[in-house]
Design a protein that fits this description.
Two copies of one chain form a homodimer. Chain A contains 15 helices and 14 strands. Chain A is of the alpha/beta class. In chain A, helix 6 links the parallel strand 6 (131-136) and strand 7.
């Protein structure tokens, strides 16, 4: 019988993250201070984020970064995740391709997000932070952050895109199970939220607005730091655990990928699986193709502009060099749940400019059909 | 670093199920024909169930039964499931005990139910069946059955306890993703459902009623067989894959359990983890304690009567010898979602009579508190 799943033993698990910034032929442009338009130092960023994350954010020299022991210990709760050969999907598609998928749904809270929530909360705690805050769309990141905060003894406050909170009420129950406070965004609890509601009383939220609220809370609350689930370089760094495992698992399967495909919202999932393989394109002359699949309803990679833009709606974040649809982008309510962030992250944006990867945009109904096919063949219902 | 998870390689996976009936000091009493009160043969049962399942149901001689190759192949999609040492829970409880849990949540559809749904659908298909039907409470069994039916090319119709369908609308979406028809029970689509609604127009359903509807559909539809997710002997047989894996995993951990504890609805989950270990009590003089945890609101093990009773509300099933609260038992709506079945299964009932295991009933709020503690320590939110 042919082997279906490839799993690493705990002793085979990676103990370092891979930092693609060290290997990029052109480094990402620096984030800028919105007032002075001067490049920011890690100390500047550390007003909002945990300091260690800020150092990682701007680290363009160290290829490998040690995973702290307490984070490794929590990774072992659920990692490695399975690398699975999708024999049934191959059969249904009638393709000669060998299709593998990395199944991050076996993680606590059901997504890859916990891989970065754990180190962000760990570093925050180490630095004397007592409270963390963040935004979430459909709730995966908010749930992961709530869990990680509870693991490391931090209070958590989550701003969830209001329409998502109403559409998926169980998601806030999950966050509250771990002791987090959940607020629908835009809310009346911040200046940024009030401004949005004043201008548009029926605004049902966007990730950009929720980020504004969380950043404002962090800036105005002593002992509180902001955490982000995607887009930023240090998040992609933490998520590299996915691709590093996948590399070892593909080796066990006796294969090396011709293509790596991942869905793309802010880039945490994509970067996680792609960057460790991409280093072999950069360093070892491999020719793997890297494809980021984005929703047609939020096509920043395929139809956005590369420019400096804010990471949030209210303009509280640094200016980031990225492919963007504009920080005032507001998805249709039905689409606001996830993957509809206006910007693409600094590393990914540079990699696209340099031709190391490319985006494709996929229409909604095609995505649903593919999801149903995957469910019926491989037994897992994916988030569309 | 101490090992957290114990996982079997695909080549270490069990290839046979364990049939505890062969080893029981006293065999279960036979199921009876409701009219004649004569013991039923497998041929009698085969009017409702797939024939191979009926043979397994009454098989009191073969200790080991081969898992068919196509079922093994599907098991490899997700098995083995992890056996996890709950270090954090131990710490929170301040206990010297070593606590391990078998994590069946990594299965397709998120529960152990798929372990029996796959063989039941496989056998049905082999025997020329075109349609299968069943009942479900919260939806785990219905979802697993819908998936398994789609895997083996069968049509599926699921009667879901109406209050559960309304409380958890995503669950029927899951079943429909796999092509199943889902009907809230009691429904107007069967005589049994109509009778219940006529007597009580606001009846929001019970597992007993939903079973009546599904059995009636199977009896009145050519090419349609009924499948059941728990209670029956062949279901416990299929679920023995859980305990057989656990045994090998405990061996890797260098341990043998003093206690095996599992939640109890109809007995599929409990029997799955417990029976393979129980054979060593029966055959090898081990002294493991086996505890079935049932809800205080449906205390059939601790306060039910041992007698012949119907498996369903309308009295369409055979008479089964079991601990029961009476086949007209109707849980409060808020409790109807799961684990609230009136009867206990023939094997388990006999084992309790013979002192090989015992039940405990747990109040709801205590269960919720334990669930939150488990979530915060081990990162998994269990169904309460």
């Amino acid at each position: 019988m042919k082997q279906k799943k490839f799993i690493l033993e705990e002793k085979e698990m990676p103990t370092q993250w891979y930092n693609i910034q060290a290997d990029m032929p052109n480094k990402p442009l620096p984030p800028l201070h919105p007032g002075t338009r001067q490049p920011l130092t890690w100390e500047d960023l550390a007003h909002i984020f945990p300091a260690e994350c800020c150092k990682q954010e701007l680290n363009t020299t160290d290829r490998w970064i040690d995973i702290p022991e307490p984070v490794l210990e929590k990774y072992r709760f659920y990692r490695s995740t399975p690398m699975v050969r999708a024999y049934e999907l191959e059969k249904a598609l009638g393709t000669p391709a060998h299709i593998y998928f990395k199944n991050e749904s076996t993680n606590p809270l059901g997504s890859h997000k916990v891989n970065s929530a754990l180190p962000q909360c760990y570093y925050a705690k180490q630095e004397g932070t007592t409270n963390v805050t963040t935004e979430t769309g459909a709730g995966q990141w908010g749930a992961a952050l709530s869990y990680a905060a509870s693991v490391f003894g931090l209070e958590a406050a989550v701003y969830q895109v209001k329409i998502s909170m109403l559409q998926k009420p169980y998601r806030s129950s999950i966050m509250r199970t771990f002791g987090a406070t959940v607020e629908g965004s835009p809310s009346m609890s911040t200046r940024a939220g009030k401004d949005v509601i004043t201008k548009n009383p029926t605004h049902m939220g966007s990730l950009g607005t929720a980020i504004s609220e969380a950043v404002e809370l962090a800036m105005t609350t002593p002992g509180c730091k902001y955490t982000l689930g995607s887009v930023l370089n240090h998040v992609a760094l933490h998520q590299s655990i996915i691709g590093l495992e996948a590399e070892k698992q593909m080796e066990k399967a006796g294969e090396y990928p011709d293509m790596v495909i991942a869905c793309f919202g802010g880039g945490s999932n994509f970067g996680g699986i792609a960057f460790p393989f991409m280093r072999h394109n950069i360093l070892d002359g491999k020719k793997t193709e890297f494809i980021a699949a984005e929703p047609e309803s939020c096509p920043k990679l395929t139809r956005g502009k590369f420019e400096y833009d804010f990471g949030d709606e209210a303009g509280l974040t640094p200016l980031l060099p990225m492919y963007t649809l504009g920080h005032d982008f507001r998805p249709a309510n039905i689409h606001a749940g996830g993957l509809r962030y206006h910007g693409a992250g600094m590393i990914v944006s540079q990699l696209i400019k340099d031709g190391l990867m490319h985006g494709v945009d996929i229409p909604q109904l095609e995505t649903f059909e593919a999801g149903v096919l995957f469910a019926r063949t491989e037994g897992i219902i994916p988030a569309p």
